[in-house]
Amino acid sequence: MNTLHKYCLFALITLLSLSCEQHVEPLISQDQDRKKIEMATNYGTMIIELYNETPLHRDNFINLANNKAYDSLLFHRVINSFMIQGGDPDSRKAMPNEALGNGDAPYLVKAEISMDLFHRKGALAAARDNNPEKASSAMQFYIVQGKIHNDSLLDKAEKYTNQNQAREYFKNFPKKKSLLDSIQYAMDIRNMDRYHELMDSISDLASTEENFTPYVMPENYKEVYKSIGGYPRLDQNYTVFGEVVKGFEVIDSISNAETDTLDRPIVDVRIKTVRIID
What we know:
Layout lengths: L2 H14 L18 E7 L2 E7 L4 H12 L8 E5 L3 E4 L21 E2 L13 E4 L9 E2 L3 E4 L6 H19 L7 H12 L3 H16 L11 H9 L12 E7 L1 H8 L15 E7 L1
Antiparallel strand pairs: 1-2, 1-10, 2-9, 3-4, 4-8, 5-7, 6-8, 6-9
Helix pairs in contact: 3-5, 4-5
């Protein structure tokens, strides 16, 4: 995103200051004081609750919504059985076939990753780049569609999470730099056999470390993933800060949109308005 464009957006925000409904139980115990968001799109309307457990993300999203920062933006990245992503300010007046995904506000939001919040269907989470602090994009978000998982898929997801946790753990070990560099190189050249071999190695090494705590997926998460669905491979890696409580059919409809090679819908999926519900 153009630097001048970023700061113009920031200045504007500052000036404004800053069918059959699918039944899904709340992600965590219901909090009557949660802020509710109405997100109206050209595919229908979703009602979203924001978590008080993630106050930085909650307040940032509320501020942007109050200042109409999301109005008229696109869901610019849509992957069926995975998620729908929006919030790029460059998408408001984007031309057909224009590549999107690099726009943002000129700040990040500190990560608020919690064991109590996970990527079930309908989870609202913050997109981010590969910054080591896992700080979130200020504007870009995604809503999980995911899929139903069985025990075998959940075991693979748990293994995947532990591999990534091990990789993060060894970033502070200079002696492991060559191994970490090899993992990144294998990913960069798309040598996936070598990549998976190295990730298995780093996970095995971490399991011998006294200070490394392996991730164990809670049984209640597993039940949700096996009944409602979601995308467990993202757990413990991105900040989940809300959940859709009404309008799950909208997620499915958007997820089924025809997309181009960059996962942008051929016909624009537009956010009409995002507003706080009193």
